[in-house]
């Protein structure tokens, strides 16, 4: 049997395959391999995953996850998996970006992108990632991401660049004054997640021209600062995975058309595409 993991910092989705058949779908607490020791990951997999695998023999594991930034970290994840599932003769650990590329493009070349809380992109040749523009995080980059949309919204609200009706709606819904916002962004942990939480508010106000322009311009920046760096990007489909890409698909397509980019697939999560890739 094949075990596939789509691992984020918040949750992990596991899918157990027997040939082309899904045997089990399991959700456990997320793991960022950059933040956890091998022993901590081993314990978490033992406590949360193993009870669901009783009675199954896992022969192959394909784990895609957050925080896989070096071979050393990759080996720690492999060690944690093998310690718990010794029957697996093949264990592959790689990045969430390769998961996006395989899920979106299969074995065909294309541009694969992630737009959720953060953003990332790559040129994929059908087998491997051959080019990647560093996303740089929400302060220096992450164009189009939920965190950056939230950052732009906060700036425009606090500097009164939006209609008063939008400012009034925000104040009525969130009860956050200037001090609370600045404290959350500059002095509290996980500012990116604080900023990304305002995605639903932005979506509900897309009928306001200034809010729609904020979103479209953020996506244009994603294309010009990331996708346009890949050779032949105008001839290849540009595919997306992530909640922001899905919720703002119309604005994403509008920005793409303005930048001469052809949109391919847009999906919320990569698991279905990964199942097709590994079962094929």
Report a brief summary of the structure.
The protein has helices at residues 38-48, 71-84, 96-105, 137-140, 146-158, 164-174, 178-186, 191-196, 199-204, 209-225, 243-247, 249-258, 271-279, and strands at residues 2-7, 11-18, 21-29, 60-65, 90-95, 110-115, 119-124, 129-131, 237-241, 262-267. By secondary structure, it is of the alpha/beta class.
Walk me through this protein's architecture.
The protein is α/β, with parallel strands linked by helices. It folds into three domains: 2-88, Nucleotidyltransferase, domain 5 (2-Layer Sandwich); 102-139 and 216-271, Nucleotidyltransferase, domain 5, CATH 3.30.420.40; 146-208, Orthogonal Bundle (Transcription Termination Factor Rho, Rna-binding Domain, Chain A, Domain 1). The protein has helices at 38-48, 71-84, 96-105, 137-140, 146-158, 164-174, 178-186, 191-196, 199-204, 209-225, 243-247, 249-258, 271-279; strands at 2-7, 11-18, 21-29, 60-65, 90-95, 110-115, 119-124, 129-131, 237-241, 262-267. Strands 3-2-1-4-5 form a five-stranded mixed β-sheet, with helices on both faces. Strands 8-7-6-9-10 form a five-stranded mixed β-sheet, sandwiched between helices. The model has no long low-confidence stretch (mean pLDDT 94).
């Amino acid at each position: 049997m094949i075990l596939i993991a789509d691992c984020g910092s918040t949750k992990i989705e596991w899918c157990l395959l027997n040939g082309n058949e899904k045997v089990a779908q399991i959700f456990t607490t997320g793991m960022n391999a950059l933040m956890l020791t091998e022993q901590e990951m081993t314990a978490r997999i033992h406590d949360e995953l193993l009870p669901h695998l009783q009675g199954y023999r896992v022969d192959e594991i394909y784990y895609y996850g957050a925080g896989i930034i070096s071979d050393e970290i990759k080996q720690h994840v492999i060690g944690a998996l093998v310690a718990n599932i010794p029957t697996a003769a093949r264990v592959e650990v790689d990045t969430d970006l390769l998961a996006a590329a395989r899920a979106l493009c299969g074995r065909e070349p294309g541009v694969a992108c992630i737009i959720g809380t953060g953003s990332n992109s790559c040129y994929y040749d059908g087998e491997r990632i051959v080019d990647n523009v560093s996303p740089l995080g929400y302060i220096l980059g992450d164009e189009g991401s939920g965190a950056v949309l939230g950052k732009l919204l906060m700036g425009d609200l606090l500097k009164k660049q939006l209609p008063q009706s939008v400012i009034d709606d925000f104040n009525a819904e969130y009860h956050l004054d200037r001090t609370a916002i600045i404290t959350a962004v500059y002095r509290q942990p996980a500012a990116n997640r604080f900023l990304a939480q305002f995605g639903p508010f932005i979506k509900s106000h897309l009928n306001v021209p200034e809010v729609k322009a904020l979103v479209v311009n953020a996506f244009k920046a994603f294309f010009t600062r990331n996708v346009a760096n890949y050779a032949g990007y105008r001839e290849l489909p540009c595919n997306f995975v992530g909640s922001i890409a899905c919720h703002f698909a119309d604005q994403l397509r509008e920005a793409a058309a303005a930048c001469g980019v052809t949109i391919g697939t847009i999906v919320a999560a990569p698991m279905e595409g990964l199942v097709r890739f590994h079962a094929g």
